[in-house]
């Protein structure tokens, strides 16, 4: 069963990444902007001071319009071994390309501690109606979110509607998110 779920995830991931890459630049920008609007009107975001986010990669929804909001303190991941290390970042501060080709804060950027975090905006290849996510297969977010100290932090999965599915294949270690946002709405159920 676990092997079948992995194979299904691999095939589904490949198909959904192809669909996402087929979006025109204009569609991608428009859908990303709508996702940002839904997040800006979210009570979860409004009551959060420190928010962990991501820099768009492989045509993921782009959240960069949110980062200029100085009401929030923004944190971004650096891939360190098999884990994510979180660092604060403000527009204009240096960035670098990490081991996986993903833009990340400079290693000297201040670290963020677990107790500072109020909300996590989680990148995904897909999410489902039960609020599970399909990642890229590296397990970085799965490992982090399965740790007891991180499991109580509110999470919002970020995907385009084309990747919001009825149900994803699941493994025992997969954890649900608190909400999903697409360009059409913020979904809690």
Structure overview:
By secondary structure, the protein is of the alpha/beta class. It has one domain: NagB/RpiA/CoA transferase-like (Rossmann fold). 27% of the residues lie in helices and 23% in strands. It has 5 helices and 12 strands. It has helices at 2-21, 25-40, 43-46, 140-146, 148-151; strands at residues 50-52, 73-80, 83-88, 95-97, 103-105, 119-123, 126-128, 133-134, 155-158, 164-165, 179-181, 186-187. It is globular. 30% of the residues are buried.
The CATH homologous superfamily corresponds to NagB/RpiA/CoA transferase-like
Helix content: 25-40%
Low-confidence stretches: none
Q: How widely separated are the two ends? A: 26 Å
What is the number of beta strands? Answer: 12
- The SS-based structural class is alpha/beta
CATH architecture classification name: 3-Layer(aba) Sandwich
Q: What fold name goes in the CATH topology slot?
A: Rossmann fold
What count of structural domains? 1
Beta-strand portion reads 15-25%
Topology:
Layout: H1 2-21, H2 25-40, H3 43-46, E1 50-52, E2 73-80, E3 83-88, E4 95-97, E5 103-105, E6 119-123, E7 126-128, E8 133-134, H4 140-146, H5 148-151, E9 155-158, E10 164-165, E11 179-181, E12 186-187
Parallel strand pairs: 1-2, 1-6, 6-9, 7-10, 9-11
Antiparallel strand pairs: 2-3, 4-5, 7-8, 11-12
Characteristic key phrases:
three-stranded mixed sheet, 5 helices, seven-stranded mixed sheet, 23% strand, alpha/beta
Give the gist of this structure.
The chain has 189 residues and is an alpha/beta fold. It has helices at residues 2-21, 25-40, 43-46, 140-146, 148-151; strands at 50-52, 73-80, 83-88, 95-97, 103-105, 119-123, 126-128, 133-134, 155-158, 164-165, 179-181, 186-187.
């Amino acid at each position: 069963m676990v092997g079948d779920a992995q194979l299904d995830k691999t095939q589904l991931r490949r198909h959904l990444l192809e669909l996402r890459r087929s979006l025109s630049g204009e569609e991608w920008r428009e859908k990303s902007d709508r996702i940002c609007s839904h997040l800006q009107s979210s009570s979860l975001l409004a009551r959060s001071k420190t928010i962990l986010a991501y820099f768009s990669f492989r045509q993921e929804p782009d959240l960069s319009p949110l980062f200029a909001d100085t009401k929030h303190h923004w944190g971004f991941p650096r891939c360190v071994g098999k884990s994510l290390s979180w660092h604060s970042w403000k527009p204009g501060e240096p960035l670098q390309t990490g081991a996986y080709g993903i833009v990340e804060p400079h290693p000297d950027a201040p670290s963020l501690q677990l107790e500072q975090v109020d909300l996590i905006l989680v990148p995904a290849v897909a999410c489902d109606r039960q609020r599970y996510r399909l990642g890229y297969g590296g397990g970085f977010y799965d490992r982090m979110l399965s740790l007891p100290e991180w499991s109580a932090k509110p999470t919002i999965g970020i995907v385009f509607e084309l990747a919001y599915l009825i149900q994803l294949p699941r493994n025992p270690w997969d954890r649900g998110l608190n909400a999903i946002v697409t360009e059409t709405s913020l979904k809690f159920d």
